[in-house]
Amino acid sequence: MRKVIILSTMLLFFSIGYSQQAVTWQQLSKVKWVSSYIPSMDGFYDLPRFSKEIKALDGKEISIKGFYMPVDASGKIFALSANPSNMCFFCGGAGYESVIEVIPKSGETSMKHIKTDKFIEIKGILKTNKNDPNHLMYILKDVELIAIIR
Question: What CATH number belongs to 19-148?
């Protein structure tokens, strides 16, 4: 009986530690584009319309692997890309869905020292953005580094 309790406790802690849902770039590519008028920009722009699968992830903690790209010198904001920067975000047919704006958790410093194009795994809260042209269409907030893979 004692072994069963110990095993159950270990499984509980294991599942709590890995409760985020792993997401792939292929899942994030399920987006359609609709031309819409944006009054503040006085023009028509293609805006994303997310699939049901993506909508279900909005506000949830996810993990994803990709290539690290710093956006600002302070290391407070960076991007994660499906492709390394030497291949360009959008070259070769990649689109906006191949990049995530990443905002580290307050006090998180482990990502400041990662070199550009390192392949990493991170976790955070996914926010979909379909209307704000000042941000990417995917934003990952409260991000923590899981692993530097290579």
Answer: 2.40.50.140
